[in-house]
Design a protein that fits this description.
heterodimer; A: mainly alpha; Methane Monooxygenase Hydroxylase, Chain G, domain 1; 0% strand; elongated; B: alpha/beta; six-stranded mixed β-sheet; 10 helices; 10 strands; globular; P-loop_NTPase (chain B); phosphate transmembrane transporter activity (chain B)
Chain lengths: 227, 274
Amino acid sequence: MSQHIDTEIKLLKDNVLELMFLVKNQLEKGQRALDNFDEELAHEIMANEKRVDSLELTIDRDCEELLALHNPVAVDLRFVMAAFKINSDLERVGDHANSIAKYIVDFGRQIDDKTFESMRLKEMYDTSIKMMSNVFNAFITEDTELARKVFKLDKTLNKINRETSKVTAKLIKEDVEQTQNYLYLFSIIRKLERVGDLTKNIAEELIFYMEAKVLKHKKRNSNNNGN
Amino acid sequence: MESETKSPKATQEKTEPKMDSKSQNYKLHAKNIDVFYDDFKAINNISLGILEKSITAFIGPSGCGKSTFLRLFNRMNDYIDGFSMNGNILLDDKNIYDPDLKVEELRKTVGMVFQKPNPFPKSIYENVAYGLRIQGIKDEDFIEERVITSLKQATLFSEIEDNLDKSALSLSGGQQQRLCIARALAVKPSVLLMDEPTSALDPISSGKIEDLVHELKKDYTIVIVTHNMQQAGRVSDNTAFLYMGSLIEYGDTQKIFTNPEKDRTQNYITGRFG
């Protein structure tokens, strides 16, 4: 029995890692598509959304089977619980990547460098992708210190997000005709902020699995890494 | 070689459940117990307190000493050739191995249910009445009242109330086990020892015994040996994990089954050894 549950848990971990890798790729492609106004790449992201959904269902089923057939306890139970929640978080990150791709298609033209810079889109994307890379590597290496680094990065996203409404209002005042486009970009910032929140949740789930510590809903000060 | 504690997040060892360690808080208190069968040391310096009206599960691989340890509480090991022990076992703060203590009196207080149902080849009624009769009780009204109450407590009465004169051997395995529990309850013990009470039963019968154990907790202190991890998790308040005659970990069941302190406990309950 023990070897069997090990096999099932490894399979579940492989599937979650595959979904994490796929979602990270979706974010990276989203950044490239926005940078280069690459509509083809945006369509590719939208097509890949089906793979995200399909993997999510597979992982749901893996978790259900593990719980029903193996009655996991202790670290195994924490792993299955964490995998189940991470799965849901990743699927939602995938949804945001997909929505951003749709904006790119709807947006219809390249964003000028000045707008890109003033809305801090590059920083937002770089940070959210770095967060996803951190949780991916933290999961592979079972490194909770790396997972904790995500909390600080999330604060960067939150800060940019808070400032975006002022920046957007200023840009609209300067060029009213571009209002709809600025609102699209404003939405992208909002979605990347949500991606940050979801990635932070994933980091918390990894810490729960590895250390049996519940960090959810705990306030952290600016220098706190989540301990 | 397994490490003593889980790294890197292990905290201090927890070998006592919730309350403080004053013996007066415990219904049963084993202190520094060693058990030998001739030269073989079956139990190695175990100390453990069991709270009144709680359910405590002993888990561990075959041969770890859990049944030996359980049987100490009503001196069932006394008859085994080569048995000897060190240490004290206190029941309500009195040493049950005191030479002046009568074992028959002890067993009125500490009842036992075994792995395999073992009804006597008598009627259902006489099985439950047996303990009272050997105590010399002759008042038939009193006996009848106690038999019915015990069968009700064991959640068997409604199934057999019109067949009390039928042979106990005609009952199903699950019914026989509940009859044995009723027989143990009839003499009004305060402690009930159960040695793998459901291992010979189907899931429905096992479920009924588990429900019964839960119900009995209101009035009895229950100690249960089980190989079924899920059962230990479902029914007990505290769990003790024994391995090779030693107590590895003892504490709150919820904690043991979600985040045990010791690697060896984790490896056992997750099925990775044992």
